[in-house]
Amino acid sequence: MSQTLNADPQELAKFSELAHRWWDPESEFKPLHRINPLRLDWIDRLATLKGKRVVDIGCGGGILSDAMARRGAAEVLGIDLSTKALSVARLHAMEAGTPHVEYREVSAETLAAERPGEFDVVTCMEMLEHVPQPDSVVRAAAALVKPGGWVFFSTINRNPKSFLFAIVGAEYVLRLLPRGTHEYARFIRPSELAGWSRAAGLDWVQTRGLEYNPLTDRYWLSDDVSVNYLVACRKP
């Protein structure tokens, strides 16, 4: 794993500027609030969160971390490199009285060196496409999970359709996200993520697509991984 900080200062600044809006369900983070029940239920069906030790890589303001703690996880550690986002996450946990969740400003690689094999579940959602070395994060996730544990990723495929839907459609036409949220060159093909996962010693168990219909304003999971997709892996 890289000893340099695997982060893009521009990406950190971008999300830090919006940190105070993380928990506003009508803000720029509205899509995350809308898809959170879908991804939470999917993770829980496969890994059964109750009583598990979980680390959420790239937790931002804690939307998924908070939900997993409320679902019954014994311990949820949300990690991120955005000081402002973590402050918002801690404040929300305190105000909402969320049990068994804490947040720490640390990279996945550093935590993996400190606490290898300590977690039953590792999540890294909507984060890989924002870092310079996503394969390094995959290796860190694999190091953090214990044998038999689960690792979950979600990201965006790289193809003409994803450019049209995730950037042109979501950022410019529908304005679901601020312009500049994503860079097409950083999108990740499933074959690339599969290669990194296998190299890190993870077995792919399931892949799901995440779709959105702007006419009905509905999100759902499907078998179509051509744009947004989620991956469940397991460590032998």
From TrEMBL:
<dbReference type="InterPro" id="IPR010233">
    <property type="entry name" value="UbiG_MeTrfase"/>
</dbReference>
<comment type="pathway">
    <text>Cofactor biosynthesis; ubiquinone biosynthesis.</text>
</comment>
<comment type="function">
    <text>O-methyltransferase that catalyzes the 2 O-methylation steps in the ubiquinone biosynthetic pathway.</text>
</comment>
<feature type="binding site">
    <location>
        <position position="39"/>
    </location>
    <ligand>
        <name>S-adenosyl-L-methionine</name>
    </ligand>
</feature>
<feature type="binding site">
    <location>
        <position position="58"/>
    </location>
    <ligand>
        <name>S-adenosyl-L-methionine</name>
    </ligand>
</feature>
<comment type="similarity">
    <text>Belongs to the methyltransferase superfamily. UbiG/COQ3 family.</text>
</comment>
<protein>
    <recommendedName>
        <fullName>Ubiquinone biosynthesis O-methyltransferase</fullName>
        <ecNumber>2.1.1.222</ecNumber>
        <ecNumber>2.1.1.64</ecNumber>
    </recommendedName>
</protein>
<dbReference type="GO" id="GO:0061542">
    <property type="term" value="F:3-demethylubiquinol 3-O-methyltransferase activity"/>
</dbReference>
<keyword id="KW-0808">Transferase</keyword>
<dbReference type="Pfam" id="PF13489">
    <property type="entry name" value="Methyltransf_23"/>
</dbReference>
<dbReference type="InterPro" id="IPR029063">
    <property type="entry name" value="SAM-dependent_MTases_sf"/>
</dbReference>
<dbReference type="GO" id="GO:0102208">
    <property type="term" value="F:2-polyprenyl-6-hydroxyphenol methylase activity"/>
</dbReference>
<feature type="binding site">
    <location>
        <position position="80"/>
    </location>
    <ligand>
        <name>S-adenosyl-L-methionine</name>
    </ligand>
</feature>
<feature type="binding site">
    <location>
        <position position="125"/>
    </location>
    <ligand>
        <name>S-adenosyl-L-methionine</name>
    </ligand>
</feature>
<keyword id="KW-0949">S-adenosyl-L-methionine</keyword>
<keyword id="KW-0489">Methyltransferase</keyword>
<dbReference type="GO" id="GO:0032259">
    <property type="term" value="P:methylation"/>
</dbReference>
<keyword id="KW-0831">Ubiquinone biosynthesis</keyword>
